[in-house]
Amino acid sequence: MMHRAEYVKPDGRRLWVYGRLPPNITAAPSPAAKAPTVDAHLRRHPLLQEWVVYATHRQDRTFLPSPEDDPLAPTTDPWHPTELPAGDYEVAVFENRFPSLSLHSGAPSSVEGIETAAAFGSCEVVVFAQERSSSLGELPLDRICLVLEVWGDRTRHLQQAGLAYVLPFENRGVEMGATLQHPHSQIYGYGFLPRRQAQIMQALKDHYKRSGRDLVSNLAVAERDRQVRVVASRGNAVAFVPPFGRFPYETWVVPTRSVPDLAGLSETDRGDIAFCLSQALRRLDRLWNRPMPYLMTVNQAPSDEGPHPEWTVRIEICPIRRAPDKLKFLAGTELGAGVFANDIAPEAAAATLRSVRL
Predict the structure, then answer these.
(1) Could you tell me which residues come within 8 angstroms of residue 290 by beta carbon, excluding any fewer than 6 positions away?
(2) Cα–Cα nearest to 147, from 130, 129, 124
(3) Which residues pair with 5 in a beta bridge?
């Protein structure tokens, strides 16, 4: 069972704390007493037909603080509050102090010749644990299950707020652009369906119309049965290197039954996914015995009324280290043409990850 308690910070932002037992905190702290100033809007890219977010206030966001100034650690000195309270809870979520998107975004200024829109949306921070030294992959399986439930709970609330797409993700490591090293993820809720998700949804719908089958869950079953690119599997979930992976050691974690979002997962599903996710992340970290920088995204069906029989939720882990001392940079062909070049074959990547000793 998951318990949740909601609080309001002194600056007006909301905080949610979660646990298997009812959370117990005394106050919801905030590093600032005043509500943050949000200066954000959208501009339409006329060639790519996608929205670009402009959020100039984010230039002042916290950047690589020292461990002693960790804003995601529980508050120990009331005169120097952090984002999180002391007390009994396991996972915490709060509204980002420097959001790119906001549920209270105002009308944008006009830009001659360019379509603009309000930066309507939401940006939340999900802190996995009170301890700075932990990581998502090293957490106990029940805590990973709880994180999956928290992502699902926040997804439901953001969908009810009228957001078109909800994306939980983790930028892990300074190499990936993470400015805070305390283990955490973020949840972006968009007031529009991003172009990438719209393109994926159309491809999945086309496949379902042709075959009557869900492409992603069928892919997971096929990979589990072939046992060529599998990294780990248990019950209703499998972690595998996709045969078309764009990043070195890219790994997906997917349920083997069709389920469009986190809210649709059963307790058994969550346990199996947590196991496969832990296995994948731990193997990546132990590949060269150093933390693997990555982008991890939780890809759910859009928030419209659905249903979405064509869509299965999938977790994509995209590592950017291709060798112990070499990073995979996105450069000419990737950024210039959108064509990825991968130095490591998926079959070799999967075999290497399977050989890692845990």
Answers:
(1) 324
(2) 129
(3) 17
Taking CA atoms, 181 is separated from 4, 173, 185, 233, 340, in Å, by 25, 7, 11, 29, 28
**For residue 215, which of 226, 206, 228, 224 has the smallest C-alpha distance?**
206
DSSP state of 163: -
Amino acid at 133: S
Sign, Cα dihedral of 71, 187, 296, 139: positive
Please indicate, yes or no, whether the overall pTM of this predicted structure exceeds 0.85: yes
Rg (CA), the chain: 20
Name residue, tokens 């890809």. Answer: 299
- For residue 237, the cross-strand partners are 234, 255
Q: Can you tell me the distance from the alpha carbon of 279 to that of 324, in angstroms, rounded to the nearest whole number?
A: 20
Pairing of strands 121-127, 184-190: antiparallel
Peptide bond into 65 cis (omega under 30): no
Structure tokens at 7: 């609080």
> How do residues 179-232 score in pLDDT, each as one tens digit?
899 999 999 999 999 999 999 999 999 999 999 999 999 999 999 999 999 999
Q: What is the DSSP code (8-state) at residue 280?
A: H
Rounded CA-CA distance 255/257 in Å is 5
DSSP codes of every residue in 14-34: EEEEEESS--EES----S-SS
Give the pair of three-digit tokens for residue 254. 């997917």
Pairing of strands 321-323, 294-299: unpaired
* Alpha carbon separation from 34 to 53, 101, 103, 297, 307 (Å, rounded): 24, 19, 18, 32, 42
